[in-house]
């Protein structure tokens, strides 16, 4: 029996980091785990099941984008090095100033990569996004054209490129679709909060653009499994990887098999909430394209008041991280459309939640209710 790997998770209290820590903990996969985050567990909206996996002696509060913190983050009491480093950190909020992403995403990744290379870490997994691809009629494969369409995407791609230049870094890049699942506070959460408001207002929920706009998804359960399997695959010598055909840096899309579209989401949300859903006509969508700021502001003005009212009526005095507030960057009529076959063929990964469904979305809402986030 080989010794289990020692694992360092940066941004370990973020949405993916906490689930990765939980997966490792529940399955007894690691000999040692350290969770690093700049936020304290008490302030991270952690559900009770994460306490053991993410808090206590496993947790270290530190800002990994600060160089002076790196020694403390990486040093272990026994003087050994970590086997796997997962970078789940970086700025995940939309519509921030470029400097914020430069420092907290790009700067963070490069600082960690240099340190990992210096210490000979066996596998460094960088989490990136499918928003780096140039949308095309067919789903993007890992070597397809790149043209990032969100600020997060722009700086994630720069991080990918900078990391690839670091001599001696054992790098794997994972590009994610929209991640959803219990306690999710982004993307799917926004749509669910909006639907809750439209249900209360007894009005139809209408999406911009068309039902065919691709908004590919992946369940958090499969994301954590994929991250773990990829690290194991890499340290086992990267079987089935062909540098000359696939490139020097193993890169994998992590996206379910459902080819999720706005239309599919609208159908599911309509069923879950019992509301009418539809799409704005060509005219309004064309107007929105030219005036996206004002359209988004109008929607936000329309829904934020009623949402606050719903929370108040439900007696929720300490609102959770959920909001129907819409981010303009997420409202672009740009496809997030990815081909995930490489992960399945090269690593032998199989998705346990291959398609987003009414049941999986209801599970998300149940998780909100459990924590008293949901009106």
Question: Could you characterize what this model shows?
Answer:
The protein is an alpha/beta fold and 375 residues long. 41% of the residues lie in helices and 13% in strands. The protein contains 13 helices and eleven strands. It has helices at 15-26, 51-54, 70-74, 98-118, 151-164, 188-201, 220-235, 243-246, 262-273, 282-290, 292-313, 341-347, 358-370, and strands at residues 6-10, 32-37, 59-61, 84-87, 123-129, 171-176, 178-180, 205-207, 217-219, 251-254, 277-279. The strands form three sheets. A seven-stranded parallel beta sheet has the order 3-2-1-4-5-6-10, sandwiched between helices. Helix 4 runs parallel beside helix 5 and helix 6 (188-201) packs across helix 11 (292-313). The radius of gyration is 21 Å and the shape is globular. The N and C termini lie far apart (50 Å). The relative contact order is 0.14. Residues 7-238 form the NAD-dependent epimerase/dehydratase domain. Pfam families: Epimerase. This is NAD-dependent epimerase/dehydratase domain-containing protein. It comes from Cercophora newfieldiana.
Please describe the structure with a list of short key phrases separated by commas or semicolons:
seven-stranded parallel β-sheet; two-stranded parallel ribbon; 11 strands; 41% helix; Lipid_A_modif_metabolic_enz
Helices and strands, in order, run as EHEHEHEHEHEEHEEHHEHEHHHH
Q: What portion of residues is helical?
A: 40-55%
End-to-end Cα distance, whole Å, is 50 Å
How confident is the prediction overall: mean pLDDT?
Answer: 93
Report the portion of residues in β strands.
5-15%
The main pleated sheet reads as:
7 strands, parallel
The value of Rg in angstroms is 21 Å
Gross geometry: globular
Please state the oligomeric state of the protein chains shown.
single chain
Structural class: alpha/beta
Q: Which stretches are low in confidence, meaning pLDDT under 50 for 5 or more residues running? A: none
Tally the beta strands.
Answer: 11
- Please tally the helical runs, counting DSSP H or I stretches of 4 or more residues: 13
Strand line-up of the largest beta sheet = 3-2-1-4-5-6-10
């Amino acid at each position: 029996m080989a010794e289990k790997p020692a694992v360092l998770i940066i941004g370990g209290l973020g949405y993916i980091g906490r689930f990765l820590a939980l997966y490792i903990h529940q399955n007894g996969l690691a000999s040692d785990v350290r969770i690093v985050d700049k936020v304290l567990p008490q302030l991270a909206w952690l559900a009770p099941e994460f306490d053991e996996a993410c808090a206590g002696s496993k947790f270290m509060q530190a800002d990994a984008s600060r160089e002076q913190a790196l020694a403390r983050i990486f040093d272990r009491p026994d003087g050994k090095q970590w086997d796997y480093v997962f970078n789940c950190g970086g700025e995940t909020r939309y519509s921030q100033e470029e400097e914020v992403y430069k420092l907290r995403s790009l700067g963070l990744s490069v600082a960690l990569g240099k340190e990992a290379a210096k210490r000979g870490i066996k596998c460094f997994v960088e989490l990136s996004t499918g928003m780096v691809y140039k949308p095309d009629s067919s789903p993007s494969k890992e070597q397809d054209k790149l043209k990032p369409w969100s600020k997060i995407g722009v700086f994630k791609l720069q991080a990918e490129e900078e990391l690839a230049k670091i001599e001696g870094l054992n790098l794997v890049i994972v590009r994610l679709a929209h991640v959803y699942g219990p306690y999710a506070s982004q993307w799917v959460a926004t749509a669910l909060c909006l639907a809750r408001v439209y249900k209360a207002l007894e009005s139809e929920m209408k999406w911009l653009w068309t039902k065919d706009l691709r908004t590919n998804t992946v369940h958090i359960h499969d994301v954590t499994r994929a991250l773990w399997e990829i690290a194991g695959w890499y340290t086992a010598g990267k079987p089935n990887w062909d540098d000359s055909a696939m490139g020097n840096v193993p890169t994998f899309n992590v996206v379910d098999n459902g080819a999720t579209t706005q239309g599919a989401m609208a159908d599911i949300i309509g069923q879950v909430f019992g509301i009418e859903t539809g799409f704005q006509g060509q005219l309004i969508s064309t107007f929105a394209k030219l005036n996206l700021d004002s359209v988004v502001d109008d929607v936000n003005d329309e829904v934020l008041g009623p949402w606050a009212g719903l929370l108040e009526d439900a007696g929720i005095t300490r609102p959770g991280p959920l909001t129907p507030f819409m981010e303009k960057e997420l409202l672009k009529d740009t496809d997030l459309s990815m081909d995930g076959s490489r992960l399945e063929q090269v690593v032998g990964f199989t998705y346990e939640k291959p398609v987003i469904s009414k049941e999986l979305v209801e599970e998300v809402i149940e998780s909100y209710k459990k924590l008293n986030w949901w009106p």
